[in-house]
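S.,

Sequence below, as promised.
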Amino acid sequence: MRSLMKAAASYTLGQRASLWVSAGVVGHTLWMGVAPSMTYPIYASEWHLTPTVTAAVFAVYPLVVAVVLSSFGDVSDYVGRRVTMLLGLSASLLGALIFAVAPNVTWLFAGRAFMGIGVGLSVAPSAAAVVEFSAAGQSKRASSITTAAQALGFASALLVGGALIEYAPLPARLSFCVLCVILGGLLLAAWFLPRQTAQETLKRWQFKAPSIPVGTGKTFLVSAMAVATAYTHGAVIPSLGAQVAHDLVRSTNVRTNGAALALFAIVAGVVGILARRLSSRVSMSLGAVASTVAMVLLVVSVTEHGLLLFLVATATAGVGYSLLFLGGLQALNAAAPSEHRGGTLSMLYLVAYLAMGTVASLLGVVATAWGLKVAIDLGAGAITLLCGVTVVLVVSMRAPCASVITPVQCRLAGPRPAEHAHAVGIKE
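The prediction came back faster than expected:
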């Protein structure tokens, strides 16, 4: 028995298995963000909550994520991806458990805070690990896997959560119990990820203000704008879209309304896989155009109460989100030094979550004061404006260089070959 326990303790996943476990951690970050949104109407009805209170509960999450990213964003570059992801998954599990037993709204704020801590700790290390566990020269594929994993987590939260809320007992509890089981399994799998090497443990982490590696400023600017624009879709689609779907679908069935919103995530995942061969410049430009079209369709669908237009708008928004996120991630994965990849990606997500949290808070106040339609119009206008800024930044960057080894300003043409996993001390 002792020898069996010793063997289990020393067991380490191989590179391919580690890649998919890391992708699972990526997927959980979107699941944690969306899952509570499905139950807010239940809490609002049972506890007589105002839209302002539910919007505040929603906004706590991205704001806590932002605080964690700004404070501990680069910690995985020092203690290793595995340790940081384990800490993040543990906090996410605690947050889901709090939601499963919450007796009042105060517990919801606490649960969302722990979820924010969990995602803040694990979102950048898991994205970095997907790159590092990919084969050499496959950073584009890694960005595609990350995009698809996020979309899968988003869709699962809507479809699984919607079905459990609609058809299972304890609608405000059971979905989080299931999520706890999934997180427990993911936590166990992450335990067997490769440990950091002795060389990595010699680097001591110190608290410091977040920063961007020298030479990556221009690439970071355009990547952050693209990813932030993508994430602001989350302030409109899952936050306000549930009520829009209810009004347009005219169904009280949570699963049906969740399926309508899941179209956004399903399309985003498919596009993330199919578009992986596009250059990051093309992806970001096409994504901005698609998102602009989607916002116009969304405004028209709300005005005309057109279900078909709403579904087309949701699907088109999925295309825009996917291309914007994929292009921004590709560009930064190519530019970020491997020894600072975790910190650089944390800065990227920091900008994205701040944008989403700010827009979500403002739209919640607007929806309460002036109604849902005004909030949708304002949110669509904000995303359209961000899309325009993104296109301007992409166009203003230098044209792609012909050399294989390009300067930072030319890395938007496509990523350089990714460093092999062993180069950062990962063992199989």
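Residues 13-196+215-415 form a domain with the Growth Hormone; Chain: A; fold (CATH 1.20.1250.20).

Coffee later?
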